[in-house]
């Protein structure tokens, strides 16, 4: 009989707080995760910003600190290499990083398929040789010819990436598309294909666009999520880079009908006739009549021949 290795819980190695993050609050140290969103939501720009931050030590998005910088390995399957170079150079300019010293190694192979054993072996060997702090694969849909809706086909590829992460102690960020028209769904549930994608990630970053507004939300497996924030793709010199912006002020909450009636009556110096009260509250007859009935029934408002008055509490 051969037992699996065991360790009593209190003897397990403790992880220090400074060892939890590759990018503070944004991406777990030696974690795997998804950078997800619908088309044209700047997913690739976010992934490249993460790459520049980890490779240089500059704050990601100008805000999130990098604990320990190191090499980054990048495979950008959708963009031409000159476009990748231009984007990285622009992000470096915004971050005040010398592009010539940026240690981002770009895989220039024409194709890389995780469902092909030879390509999996080559990628694993490359990661082992480069020893990057972060591996960025953009996007997942260009890395296979499987059915993304079939859990039995997706799970083995994600399991392979988890094996690479554990064997080489590397963070793995995979860019993945969200379903079209899924803006109302919870971020993780909006990802295209199998639910394996959402479940796989240790740190998942989701981008959404509503009109001109671009927002990012973050979920972690072992840490509290940070509050959603607004991002802006802004020009910096000759390049473009994402930056965190202040969210627009939230619209003033709409007053509940009963609250509006009570406030109007509280300001009045005498009982208010129904037409005067309706004008002061600016609401429909049906709403005002129903709300007044509730307030009278509860003893908050008194009705008389002169009109309506607020009773003392």
Walkthrough of the structure:
With 313 residues, the chain is an alpha/beta fold. It folds into 2 domains: 17-245, P-loop containing nucleotide triphosphate hydrolases (Rossmann fold, 3-Layer(aba) Sandwich), CATH 3.40.50; 257-310, Arc Repressor Mutant, subunit A (Orthogonal Bundle), CATH 1.10.10. Helix content is 31%, strand content 22%. It contains 8 helices and 13 strands. The chain has helices at residues 43-56, 81-95, 117-130, 151-168, 196-200, 257-267, 274-281, 285-297; strands at 21-23, 27-28, 32-37, 72-76, 104-106, 134-138, 171-177, 203-210, 213-220, 229-236, 239-245, 301-304, 307-310. It has a 9-stranded mixed sheet with strand order 5-4-6-7-3-8-9-10-11, sandwiched between helices. A hairpin with a 3-residue loop joins strand 1 (21-23) and strand 2 (27-28). It is elongated, with a radius of gyration of 28 Å. The protein starts with 20 loop residues before the first strand and ends with a strand. The model has no long low-confidence stretch (mean pLDDT 89).
CATH class of the largest domain: Alpha Beta
Quick one: CATH superfamily of the largest domain?
P-loop containing nucleotide triphosphate hydrolases
Main pleated sheet: 9 strands, mixed
Question: Main sheet: which strands, in order across?
Answer: 5-4-6-7-3-8-9-10-11
- What's the CATH topology label of the largest domain? Rossmann fold
C-alpha Rg, in Å?
A: 28 Å
Q: Report the portion of residues in β strands.
A: 15-25%
User: SSE order, as H and E?
Assistant: EEEHEHEHEHEHEEEEHHHEE
Overall outline = elongated
Task: Return residue spans where pLDDT drops below 50 for at least 5 consecutive residues.
Answer: none
Number of discrete helical segments: 8
**Helical content band:** 25-40%
Distance between the termini: 77 Å
Number of domains: 2
Q: Please count the beta strands (DSSP E, at least 2 residues each).
A: 13
């Amino acid at each position: 009989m051969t037992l699996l290795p065991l360790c009593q819980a209190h003897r397990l190695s403790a992880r220090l707080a400074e060892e939890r993050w590759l990018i503070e609050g944004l991406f777990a140290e030696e974690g795997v995760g998804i950078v997800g969103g619908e088309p044209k939501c700047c997913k690739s720009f976010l992934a490249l910003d993460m790459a520049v931050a980890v490779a240089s030590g500059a704050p990601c998005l100008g805000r999130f600190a990098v604990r320990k910088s190191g090499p980054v390995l990048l495979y950008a399957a959708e963009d031409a290499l000159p476009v990748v170079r231009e984007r990285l150079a622009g992000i470096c300019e915004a971050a005040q990083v010398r592009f010539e010293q940026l240690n981002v190694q770009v895989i220039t192979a024409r194709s890389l398929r995780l469902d092909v054993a030879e390509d999996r072996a080559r990628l694993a060997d490359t990661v082992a040789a480069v020893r990057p702090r972060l591996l960025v694969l953009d996007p997942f849909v260009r890395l296979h010819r499987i059915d993304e809706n079939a859990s039995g086909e997706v799970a083995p590829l994600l399991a392979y990436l988890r094996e690479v992460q554990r064997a080489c102690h590397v963070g793995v960020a995979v860019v993945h598309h969200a379903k079209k028209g899924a803006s109302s769904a919870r971020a993780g549930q909006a990802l295209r294909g199998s639910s394996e994608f959402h479940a796989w990630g240790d740190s998942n970053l989701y981008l959404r666009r509503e009109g001109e507004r671009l927002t990012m939300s973050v979920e972690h497996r072992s840490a509290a999520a940070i509050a959603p924030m607004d991002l802006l793709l802004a020009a910096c010199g000759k390049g473009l880079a994402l930056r965190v912006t202040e969210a627009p002020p939230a619209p003033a909450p709409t007053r509940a009908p009963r609250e509006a009636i009570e406030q109007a009556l509280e300001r009045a110096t005498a009982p208010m006739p129904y037409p005067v009260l309706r004008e002061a509250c600016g609401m429909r007859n049906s709403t005002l009549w129903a709300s007044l009935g509730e307030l009278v029934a509860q003893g908050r408002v008194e009705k008389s021949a002169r009109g309506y008055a607020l009773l003392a509490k």
